[in-house]
């Protein structure tokens, strides 16, 4: 880094992309008092984006530093990483574009957060770079957006409220809109692309996990069984529910494994579901999922999905993404049903087994608005600023972590609650 250049607290990389633009917008408030800048390949495009955000926010952004960095130019990535303490990486799919940025951050000694929802990428980064990140004293945290922050920290929150030993958690995600849905995209193309490659390479996970965890967890009883593929749950007012195919379970289980390995704490079993108000919605989503699953297996099928996202998603995904009005009027809720034992029944060793079935239950909930982009960008920025302010409350001296493991002892949940999220107990432990 040039000695005349000011070291920034935060740089938002990929700032001219869809997620990057909204991260800048949320950053105007959440990064106040910090020195922050933006980065990307084209200085002109970045200036244009700043101009757009200036008008939208009615805020002068002419003094925001602009850094040019190209994913194909490792020297430029290193220079960018050297300019800041924490890098917010918005350039996905991370399977293709994430690793060079992480390498640059490790070399520069810079913390890194991103919004990846790609289990193969996240687990491979942990396998290959955890030790290097520890040695450099930096934190690399993926899955810092919706929906893994609510799912992972929501599990942490539930356990805080339980006052006992939690055996298992089942999560139910649902969405609602304040305005009637009139069609149109609900997903941006980048999310669609990440999902295609994630599903296409799902078979990599078993091998990765064998290398990542040399020993298997004990067979804790009772085992949390899968619900029927289609079922109704009173937790979500009798809505139809199906298994959620996203990265939530992968992320939560990595955090739980960390707590077991490092803190000798009994890991919480977890299953994730998504709920729909009507059977018609379920059938529509199921049809898209079947087509998506079949085509993702073949190169030609993936090319079709990538070339015609609107067609194969029945209009739910597009290059333009959802409208701002649709995003701002969309709300999400994730409900958590936790089951376990009272604190009086706590075992001496984490590997010990209970002789009686769990009888204590609790229901908690995490809610927010604009899940895909507003809530994602808020949680992404707060994940970065928490590293700046509370690194002493994070595990060890650095490493590659999921958000639950990284932020469990920090004030991130409280910060989220001040910025549009709610974490609450719906039905207390009994």
How does the SSE layout of this entry go?
Blueprint: E1 8-13, H1 18-30, E2 36-40, H2 43-57, E3 66-68, H3 74-82, E4 84-89, H4 94-108, E5 111-114, H5 119-136, E6 139-141, H6 148-162, E7 164-177, E8 187-188, H7 189-200, H8 204-212, E9 231-233, E10 239-243, H9 248-263, E11 269-276, H10 279-296, H11 299-307, H12 309-312, E12 317-318, H13 324-328, E13 330-342, E14 360-369, H14 371-390, E15 399-401, H15 403-407, H16 412-417, E16 422-427
Parallel strand pairs: 1-2, 1-4, 2-3, 4-5, 5-6, 6-15, 7-11, 8-12
Antiparallel strand pairs: 7-13, 9-10, 10-11, 13-14, 14-16
Helix pairs in contact: 1-2, 1-14, 3-4, 4-5, 5-8, 6-9, 10-11
What does this structure look like?
By secondary structure, this protein is an alpha/beta fold. It has 2 domains: 8-141, NAD(P)-binding Rossmann-like Domain (Rossmann fold), CATH 3.40.50.720; 149-371 and 411-427. Helix content is 44%, strand content 22%. It has 16 helices and 16 strands. The longest helix is centred in the last third of the chain and has 20 residues, at 371-390.
């Amino acid at each position: 880094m040039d000695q005349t250049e000011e070291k920034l607290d935060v740089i938002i990389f990929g700032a001219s992309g869809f997620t990057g633009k909204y991260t800048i917008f949320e950053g105007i408030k959440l990064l106040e008092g910090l020195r922050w800048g933006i980065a990307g390949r084209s200085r002109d495009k970045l200036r244009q984006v700043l101009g757009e955000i200036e008008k939208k926010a009615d805020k002068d952004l002419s003094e925001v530093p602009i850094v040019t960095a190209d994913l194909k130019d490792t020297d430029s990535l290193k220079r960018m990483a050297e300019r800041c303490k924490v890098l917010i990486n918005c350039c996905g799919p991370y399977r293709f574009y994430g690793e060079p940025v992480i390498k640059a951050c490790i070399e520069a000694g810079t913390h890194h957060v991103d919004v990846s929802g790609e289990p193969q990428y996240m687990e491979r980064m942990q396998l290959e770079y955890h030790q290097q990140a520890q040695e450099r004293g930096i934190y690399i945290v993926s899955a810092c957006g919706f929906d893994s922050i609510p799912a992972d920290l929501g599990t942490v929150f539930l356990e805080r409220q339980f006052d006992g030993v939690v055996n298992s958690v089942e999560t139910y995600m649902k969405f609602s809109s304040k305005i009637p849905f009139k069609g149109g995209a609900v997903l941006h193309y980048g999310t669609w692309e990440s999902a295609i490659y994630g599903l296409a390479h799902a078979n990599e996970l078993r091998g990765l996990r064998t290398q990542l965890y040399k020993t298997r967890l004990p067979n804790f009883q009772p085992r949390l069984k899968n619900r029927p593929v289609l079922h109704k749950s009173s937790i979500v007012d009798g809505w139809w529910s199906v298994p959620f195919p996203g990265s939530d379970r992968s992320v939560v289980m990595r955090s739980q494994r960390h707590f077991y390995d490092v803190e000798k704490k009994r890991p919480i079993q977890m299953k994730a579901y998504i709920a729909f108000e009507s059977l018609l919605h379920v059938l529509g989503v199921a049809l898209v999922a079947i087509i998506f699953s079949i085509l993702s297996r073949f190169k030609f099928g993936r090319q079709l999905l990538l070339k015609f996202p609107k067609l194969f998603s029945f209009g739910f995904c597009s290059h333009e993404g959802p409208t701002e009005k649709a995003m701002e009027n969309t709300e999400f809720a994730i409900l958590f049903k936790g089951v376990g034992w009272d604190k009086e029944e706590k075992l001496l060793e984490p590997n010990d087994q209970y002789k009686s079935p769990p009888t204590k239950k609790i229901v908690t909930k995490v809610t927010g608005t604009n899940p895909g982009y507003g809530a994602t960008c808020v949680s992404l920025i707060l994940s970065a600023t928490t590293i700046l302010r509370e690194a002493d409350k994070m595990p060890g001296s650095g490493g590659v972590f999921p958000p639950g493991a990284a932020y469990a002892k920090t004030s991130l949940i409280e910060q989220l609650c001040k910025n549009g999220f709610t974490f609450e107990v719906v039905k207390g432990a009994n």
